[in-house]
Write a sequence for this structure.
């Protein structure tokens, strides 16, 4: 549910970029380094009050963001000075851009219309030390055309139980499995140069490890381990064991959030 700021406070939003290599995910987690933990600590140090952050999408450990969006409430502030202070305190692995006051009912999570992720695969014999923090290195040659054909079968609204971790939610006093039905608006496989393959996925929302599971399955298609026509069967089985492996986190980046 979307709340509005308490009296005397305003709502702010910011665009955040980060290298997630050294973080245990986005969400605050006592005792370990997280992106939200770092930003929250910096905000509270500058503003001198407790701050609660909402994000567009919680990224896992090792996952990056080019354009994560956050929102938070605070008393009226000098926006430019706060932006400079946050960037000084969060460097070098987190940057804060486009900090601004927004409308009271804006919520980084619930106001979002879609999220776009990119997964990068380095498809060559040898590791590239300049890319290794941001790619999955796959030595065997991938059949990109087969991956493209298979990806088209995942576009649209489906139950993605075969590609996600199941999650239990509590409604009143009853615990039930959360719905894993999602709408994938686009899924593109691009060969940006001879050895870099990118998977771009846009959906209204994603469930836990969905993009990485789709990526792992498409890579198995590209390697000839899964037949293209098996994709529809995998979806229908609604069983995580039916799909391919989960791709490692470092190749995944949250690229954009649409509002």
């Amino acid at each position: 549910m979307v709340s509005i700021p308490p009296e005397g406070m305003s709502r702010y939003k910011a665009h955040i970029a980060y290298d997630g290599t050294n973080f245990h995910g986005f969400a605050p987690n006592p005792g370990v380094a997280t992106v939200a933990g770092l930003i929250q600590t910096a905000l509270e140090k500058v503003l001198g009050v407790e701050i609660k952050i909402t994000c567009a999408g919680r990224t896992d450990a090792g996952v990056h963001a080019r354009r994560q969006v956050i929102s938070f409430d605070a008393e009226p502030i000098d926006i430019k000075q706060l932006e400079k202070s946050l960037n000084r305190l969060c460097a070098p692995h987190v940057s804060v851009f486009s900090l601004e006051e927004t409308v009271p009912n804006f919520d980084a999570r619930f106001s979002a219309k879609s999220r776009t992720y990119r997964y990068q695969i380095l498809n060559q014999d040898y590791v590239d030390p300049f890319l290794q923090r941001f790619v999955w290195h796959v030595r065997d040659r991938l059949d990109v055309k087969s991956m493209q054909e298979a990806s088209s079968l995942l576009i649209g609204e489906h139950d993605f139980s075969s590609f996600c971790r199941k999650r239990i939610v509590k409604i009143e006093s009853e615990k039930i499995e959360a719905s894993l039905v999602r709408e994938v608006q686009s899924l593109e496989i691009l060969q940006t140069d001879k050895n870099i393959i990118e998977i771009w996925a846009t959906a209204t929302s994603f469930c836990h490890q969905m993009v990485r599971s789709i990526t792992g399955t498409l890579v198995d298609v590209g390697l000839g381990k899964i037949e293209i026509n098996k994709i529809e069967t995998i979806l229908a089985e609604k069983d995580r064991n039916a799909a391919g492996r989960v791709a490692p986190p470092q190749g995944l980046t949250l690229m954009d959030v649409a509002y």
